[in-house]
Amino acid sequence: MEISGLTSLTWRMEGAVGVFTLNKPERLNAIANRDIDELDRVVMLAGRDPGVRALVITGAGRGFCSGADVKEWHARSDRDEESWPAKMHRVITRLYWLPKPVIAAVNGVAVGGGCDLALTADMRFASTTARFGEVYAQRGICPDAGGSYLLPRLVGEARAAELIYTGRIVDAAEALRIGLVSEVVEPEALMDRAMEQARIFAAGPTIAIGEAKLNIRKGHSIGIEEALRNELRAGHRCAQTEDMAEGLKAAIDKRAPVFVGR
């Protein structure tokens, strides 16, 4: 899949893995209102393209993403333009429900909306230079890109409350200790590790993984009975796929399955 006309991020494919990189390193990849349109477009197209079977998000330069471009907020003259939070909510929602594995390769600072963007991923790998923070309180506001929903589900309500109420920034070691990230690696190894995991996911049964992800996401807000019904529905869909047929045949043949994502 090729995407043209991008100015604030880059897109490339490596096999079945799509990689998009926030690309405003001079601003620590701060997201301006107009940048959200590109971000939303890339996520939408990646979700629709069957050739994209896993996704990696990272940032150019020293930062992953420093959140909203506060200079733009201060200087904005077009008050009729749709608000940053309203536009960002569409991206966060689309990425959260994307029926494909998403990995955030956090290479540096990830604060405010940048932290929330990382939290939407299924897994987060961090370099030793990464920093995470729900810094909204330091600006006199509360989280506005999903942090108050996403963070407690990863680190627990009490710890999330402390981080959100204070806006305290945590380093990579603490992020690993509290369960915010899955692994911490040296900066030069970050993308290799993220891509290694993404390729493993991309080689899997894409539809089955997407259904499992949907049920994991929904499981936060439903009871066991509805969760079991969702698993039954997902199982029926998986039973119609080439990948399930291949998985069963491989088990009988005593070999590794070769999934095609259908």
Automatic annotation (TrEMBL):
GO biological-process terms attached to the record: fatty acid beta-oxidation
A Pfam family of this chain: ECH_1
Keyword Lyase among record annotations: yes
Protein's UniProt name: Enoyl-CoA hydratase
Catalyzed reactions: a 4-saturated-(3S)-3-hydroxyacyl-CoA = a (3E)-enoyl-CoA + H2O; a (3S)-3-hydroxyacyl-CoA = a (2E)-enoyl-CoA + H2O
Gene Ontology MF terms: enoyl-CoA hydratase activity
Alphabetic keyword roster: Lyase
Recorded family membership: Belongs to the enoyl-CoA hydratase/isomerase family.
